[in-house]
UniProtKB/TrEMBL annotation:
UniProt-recorded name of the protein: Putative ABC transport system ATP-binding protein
This protein's record includes keyword Nucleotidyltransferase: no
Organism this protein belongs to: Kribbella steppae
Superkingdom assignment: Bacteria
CDD domains noted in UniProt: ABC_MJ0796_LolCDE_FtsE
Segments forming domain ABC transporter: 5-242
Lineage of the organism: Bacteria, Bacillati, Actinomycetota, Actinomycetes, Propionibacteriales
Gene3D superfamilies assigned to the protein according to its UniProt record, in alphabetical order: P-loop containing nucleotide triphosphate hydrolases
Keywords: ATP-binding, Nucleotide-binding, Transport
Length: 247
């Protein structure tokens, strides 16, 4: 199976000299096309840094990242933006919604920016499925944090890009909505062949993924296929005791 996202010997060091922090330490990993992977690990283990480097939002100090077979090394900001617009969707903790646009306008914005015409029926369906069918004309300031997160998720699903990167996508949601959103992400990968890379602290969220990769101190230390909440929680407890960062 081809990798939709391939990291090769990726390191990221913040700062220089004695106070520098090695957030990623020689990570080599391929996220295969059509798979849903959860990235887990203790606080400070490098999960968000991995996601940002994998998505081309941050550049590694060394090593290479390939998205849909294209190396990001040497791409200028314009080329990177175009590559991301075409192939990548994001669901991040800070929802990055446009405050002046309605729910529906926010959901279709990436498509419009990429010069594509939205599939209206599909857009309506994803807005319904995230539970915002009665909020389409609202603006982000008129929504709760959880509802704003659902707009961000609908936006990622509507775009039907090859890859979605999600950082704690269910962190702000109540349990029922979180499970609905996780099911949507899983369906998206199974039915649409989308590659999903999701950072989460939650073993239940991770159990919706096909695989879990565990980071400790900037390195991938283990992987698990067909995770269950119990197996993930047990593995995390074991890893936390190995981390330099976590108490
Ligand atoms: N911009 C930055 N400048 C300096 N150090 C940073 C920066 N961003 C992250 N770090 C450091 O890099 C390491 C990894 O951070 P990262 O945010 O990737 O961890 P994480 O696993 O996502 O943590 P959490 O679970 O707490 O969100 C941490 O030690 C963090 O303090």
């Amino acid at each position: 199976m081809n990798a939709a996202v391939q990291l090769t010997e990726v390191s990221k060091v913040y700062g220089t000299g004695p106070g520098s922090v090695t957030a990623l330490d020689g990570v080599t990993h391929g996220f295969a096309e059509g798979t849903f992977t959860a990235v887990m690990g203790p606080s400070g283990s490098g999960k968000s840094t991995l996601l940002h480097c994998a998505a081309g939002l941050d550049s590694p100090t060394s090593g290479d990242v390939q998205l849909v077979g294209r190396s990001l090394r040497g791409l200028n900001e314009t080329a990177l933006t175009e590559l991301r617009r075409e192939h990548v969707a994001f669901v991040f903790q800070s929802f990055n919604l446009m405050p002046t646009l309605t729910v529906r306008q926010n959901v279709v914005l990436p498509l419009t920016l990429a010069g594509k015409s939205p599939d209206r029926a599909w857009v309506s369906e994803v807005i319904q499925r995230v539970g915002l069918g009665d909020r389409v004309r609202h603006r982000p300031s008129e929504l709760s944090g959880g509802q704003q997160q659902r707009v961000a998720i609908a936006r990622a699903l509507a775009a039907r890009t090859a890859i979605t990167f999600a950082d704690e996508p269910t962190g702000a949601l109540d349990t029922a909505t979180a499970l609905e959103v996780l099911s949507l992400l899983r369906d998206q990968s199974r039915a649409q062949g989308q590659t999903i890379v999701m950072v989460t602290h939650d073993p239940v969220a991770a159990s919706y993924a096909d695989r879990v990769v565990f980071l400790v101190d900037g390195r991938i230390v283990s992987e698990a296929a067909r995770p269950t909440p119990e197996s993930v929680a047990a593995q995390l407890a074991q890893l936390s005791s190995r981390s330099k960062v976590s108490p």
